[in-house]
Structure formats: structure tokens, C-alpha cells
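OP here, attaching both records as promised.
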Amino acid sequence: MARVVLAMSGGVDSSVSAHLLKKQGHEVLGLFMRTGVHAEEDSRREGKKGCCSAIDAGDARRVADRLDIPFYALDFENEFDRIIDYFADEYLVGRTPNPCVVCNSWLKFGRLWQYGKQFDADYIATGHYARMMNGELHRAVDPDKDQSYVLYGISREMLPRLLFPLGEMRKSDVRSVAREIGLGVVAEKPDSVEICFVPDNDHARLVRERRPGRATAGSFVDEAGTILGSHDGIERFTVGQRKGLGVAAGERRYVLQIVPSRNEVVLGNREDLLSAALKATGVNWLIDSPSVALACEVKIRYRHAAAPAMVQAGEGNTATVTFETPQSAVAPGQAVVFYAGSRVLGGGWIA
């Protein structure tokens, strides 16, 4: 029997994970991260779902009590505050942040594991949809729920310590299990589809509240620099965006680039969004860093279908990705992840 610390969020995925781990004979300890994020009391009725709120903490504790496993709520508010700072600052320099990647690599499989070691745990588990196979990180069986993309940043040394109980399951089956074991409200809890600290999905407002006084209003321009109109802040935009531009034009326009030094948002046609290559920084390899160009499949955002490409590792944790076919809307700041079939090879940040 192994001792496993499980990140419990109060949702159906981590709750069923607790049940499955205990059923497998493990000694399970539930850990909840208090982040300081608050949810409205009527969030369930409105069908909203973030994570790590006081409501979620209560749900997680009730599940732990029902399953008869120890439960600890840990104060991560200061650490999580730094993730929100990262989120705001990335938008202000014209990049599109991915806080889930940062939270996973830094908090859940970093700081949370430090607590796990204090409990003499053998493994750390989460309700992520991914698989560990022969010490390797792989996609989940359910392609619609696969979360391996946001897990690439886990350190290679952590791989032998990871358990993902839901990797072979589909979401509908997870909910069925929750109902069968009497988890009540948790079984019907909606999926978390928003950034937990931006529950209304208004990231521009959060950026302005986080960094008051920063003047980011400016102009829409075309690639030749011709002014097409004005906007009230670069934090409202990301590369590839079409909706909500508010620019009258006879043809559809897309955000091609954000130039924070001039507060300009460059617009163009859909064809102008195509990129044949990209550079990645902060690359984390889950294999030995390849000495020659590596043929693999590459994802440039969560819902992107991985595209064939060649990845050449560079100096200082960088890499160059050259696509077999140009890809649309390569957004600086987003994660780029490398795959060989279902296996995650590594990834980094789009420069």
C-alpha cells in the first residue's frame, strides 16, 4: 500500500479520484489549496464553476469525510497571488498567458508536493485527465477531456511520483461513479471552463484592477501602420481574435500582433495569421533534450489539433519549431507542447 496525497478541488474529478485511489488500496490524504479566490453563493444555481473557493473547500471536506480520508486545507493565497500578477503582466506586454500551466507546474506539482513529502507520501495524484505509462506522461483516453497540454511543465524528476486515476475514463463514466457512491451535489457539479480567478471571463477588467493607472489605450493599425480606429486597452486582445474588435471594415479582420510599446493592435486578414515557425523559451523536456531536429506533433493552444513539425532544441532552454504546414494564430505567451503519438515530450512558451 502506498501513501498518496491527492489535490482535492471539491469537484467531481478529484472526488472520484479519491474513491478510486482508496479502492486500489492506497492510503489517501486529501489536500485543498486555499487561494483566496471567492465564489458567489449562488454559483451552483447559475451553473458556474471555478475552483478553490470556500464553497469548493466545503465540498471537498464533505467528500473526504464520506470517504473517510484525512483532509487538510492549505493556505496558498500568497503563492496564488503571484500567478494572478503573472496573468496581468503578460497581457500588459502583449502576450496571452496560460495560468493553468503555471499553477500545475509551480503549485500543484511543486509546492503541494513539498507538503506531500512532509506526510512521507509516495505519490501525488490529481483529477487531471492524463495518463502515466511506464514512467512517461501521455494523453488521456478521452480526447475531449485530455489535459496533458497543461501538464508539460512538470519536472521530469516528478514523473515517477505521479498518479492520474481518471486517465483511462470518460467524463460521463466519472459522473456515473460519483452518483453510484452517493457523492450528491458534487456528482452534478459543472465542469470548470473558466479561469478560476476570472469567473466572469472579463480578463481585461481584472488586469485593470490589478494594475491601475497603466495607460494601454491606443490605435488599431494595419500592417503598413495605417490607423484603422482606436481601442481602450491592449489587454482586451490576443493574437487571432476576431470578435469584439469594434472596427468597421468591409472584410473580416483579425489581431495579428500586439505592440505594447506603442499600445498598437495590428489587424489583418485571416491568411496573415499563418506562421511557418515559432521560437519557444523556457522549454521543459520530459525526455533527454534532443541533439538533432526531432519530428513530432505540436500543439500551440489547448484546443489546437497537434500539427506535424520539426523541433530543434537550442541554447538556454529554447527551441525552434518548424511546421510542416503553416499554423494559424500563434500567440506569444501561450504554451507550445511537443508530442510523439500520445506521449508528451516537453514544451515551452511561445516567444
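Record two, same layout:
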Amino acid sequence: MTAATVPPRPAEPGTAAVFARAAGAEWVRLRTVRTTWWCLLAATVTIVGMGAIAAADEAEGTATAADPIASTFAGEYGVLLGQFGLLVLVLLAVTSEYATGSIGPTLQWTPRRGVLLAARVAVPAAVAVAAGVLLALVADLLALGIDPDLTLTLGEAAGGLARIAVVLAAGSVLAVGLGLLLRSTAGALATVFLLQLVLPFLMQSFNVGWLADLAEWLPGTGAVRTLLREPDSLSAGGALALQVCWAAAALAAGGRRLLRRDAG
């Protein structure tokens, strides 16, 4: 009798192939969930609406043909509040599976957790940044129609949209990291909302020096300084570094929990 022939073991797919498959799954899951579209609608109304209000207010102000102002402030003001619709979208993409218990099958389907983490960061963040930049551009163009004395050159548009992309990218990574760390939509949403909006303004409203100093180290302060270009004690580079450090720390903590802890 001859020995039975053992069929060759199929080769393991490469990292790029696994990432492409995981990213495709993340994209399908994101675009087929109704809450994604509700978040995009909320962001659209807020960013474009706030931009239009800011432009209408500026039309009553100092902008003239002799002393023009770039209309990029419309998109920047809009994103200052409208970013939360996009950050909710990112948070839900990360935390919803923990709420439903479907994270277990996801980890079985993509056991390479590092690749899953990369896809889970890249896809929601890319959607949030792309949507935010597009909506800010719409707000900037709408502002031109509201106040003809405003300007929008290619350089002005590129600079304004680049600042918005940086803020949204850092905020999205922060949201992903906190979502993975807390594994709770409500908890992560409250934390992001406090860090990005409430605490930076609230702590500086009190006449307490150390609270105001502490507020300067929050990620929301960096976002405000970047969008409104009001550096105060923070330079443009310092505001960027502040946001990157917060995002990196949150992602490191959340990623560590995904990589080393169970699905519970």
C-alpha cells in the first residue's frame, strides 16, 4: 500500500490582502447602517448651516472689496460644531459591535487584530475627513453667495480645508481609541464631547488661573486654535502637536485593549 498523499496547506494571505478584506468589510458595515446616514445628515445641517450663519453675520461686518476676508471661516466655524456628527459616526463604527455582541464573530473572521485595528481606524476616519472637507467647501462656496465681498482663492481654500482635515483626522483617531478603550458608545461619546468642546470652554470661563492653564492642554483647545487661527499661548505647531499626542495616546490605549483583551 502507498502512503496517503497529504494535500498541501494553502498559503496564508498576505497582510495587504487581509487589510483590504477587513477594510472592505468595515466600509460595507458603515454604509449599510442607517445611523451613518443620520450622522452625515446632522453634520451637513450643522456645518453648512453654521457656515451660512457666520457668513450672514460677516456680511454685516467689516469685509469690503478693498479689505477682503477669505470665506474659509464659514467652513471652519461650521466644522467647530458639526464635527460631532462625524465623530459620532466614527464612535458607532467602533462601539456598536460591543453593544450587539457581534465583535466575537468579527475577531474570528479577522484574527489578525493588528490588521483589524488598522482597518477600524482607517475607514471611519477617512469617511469623516472626506465628508467634513466636502461639507466645509460647500459652506465656503455658500458664504461667497451670501457675501460677495468675501474671497476664496485656491491657496485660501487649500489652507482652510487642510486645517479642517487635520482636526477631523485627529478627532476621529481620538474617538476610535476611546471607543476601543471604553467599549461603550455612551461613555466614549460623553468623553469625546467633554474633551473636544465642553471642558475647553467651561474651564476657561472660570476666573481660576490653573483651570485656564489646564484647559490649554485639552485636545479641543488645539482644535479651536487650529480652526480659528487664534494661537494665544499655543502656536500652530503646538496646537497640531497637542491634537496628535492626544489621538496617539487614546489609540495606543484602545488598541492595546483590542490586541490583548478578550471580546467581552
